[in-house]
């Protein structure tokens, strides 16, 4: 309508020829080249047989997929490689172990160069004890690379000599930072709320401060793990129903220890028309989310548990209706 609120703009669009009102064309994403089968070979362009290059590829395959060194001595692995190329030469587990260490050293040097370009590095660390009662520590570095992409790399995975005092943890972290040459770039470290970690963080803070390398005056140096704080809060709440959780945990352990018990439990579930696809789960007591999943799965089979108790006199952990 002439004289309307948009008339002025409409007349300008019709009269102005210098403006293009066409929708811009969407650009096409370019993908790295792949072979005819759609497999990306990660930059390995093999035009002729090279035993050393094959050895490097096998080493990377073992590292990425966590295969044992012994696989290169397996008969059918060698038959496969020989059939692909008659020039293939069999190698021993010690040979491929040496090759894997070469790959490790090459990648380590590449990472050191990336660390040189990083202005600041943040660390996260965690300690735990294995089933063999061996203490381990993992240290991860987080940094922004030259392309402004956030990167994270595990820079240490080592065993700790007991006892795991804070000074022992601090010395291990300091040795790792010195090895990588990043001892002056650390701006923060995230640890859980164990007392020995508080001691370790304070010791590291003193070390950096003595060299005048404590960034931002140490205001953000020691960061406490939020997931661990949340876990502590939930664990305090779970103490109120600890006896119930213990009954269910022992029930699941009892059933999972014997295939015949588990089979009988499944038969009862099918008789009651309870779906068995969910299954039973055992939790890790220190992880509240796994305890939740255990309870959630067990709740599905609450009537099955009572029916199973009538058929197994050795089963002694049946939760009560109130539970």
Compact summary:
Helix content is about 45%, strand content about 10%. It is an alpha/beta fold.
> Which topology of the largest domain does CATH recognise?
Nucleotidyltransferase, domain 5
- The percent range for strand residues is 5-15%
| CA-based gyration radius | 30 Å
The count of DSSP E runs of length 2 or more, i.e. the number of strands, is 5
Give a description of the structure.
This protein is an alpha/beta fold. It contains eleven helices and five strands; from the N terminus they run ααααβββαβαβααααα. The chain has helices at 7-15, 51-65, 75-84, 93-117, 166-180, 195-210, 226-238, 242-256, 259-271, 288-300, 302-309, and strands spanning 121-129, 135-144, 150-160, 186-191, 222-224. Helix 2 (51-65) packs across helix 4 (93-117) and helix 9 (259-271) crosses helix 11. Strands 3-2-1-4-5 form a five-stranded mixed sheet.
Layout of strands and helices, then pairs:
Blueprint: H1 7-15, H2 51-65, H3 75-84, H4 93-117, E1 121-129, E2 135-144, E3 150-160, H5 166-180, E4 186-191, H6 195-210, E5 222-224, H7 226-238, H8 242-256, H9 259-271, H10 288-300, H11 302-309
Parallel strand pairs: 1-4, 4-5
Antiparallel strand pairs: 1-2, 2-3
Helix pairs in contact: 2-4, 5-6, 8-10, 9-11
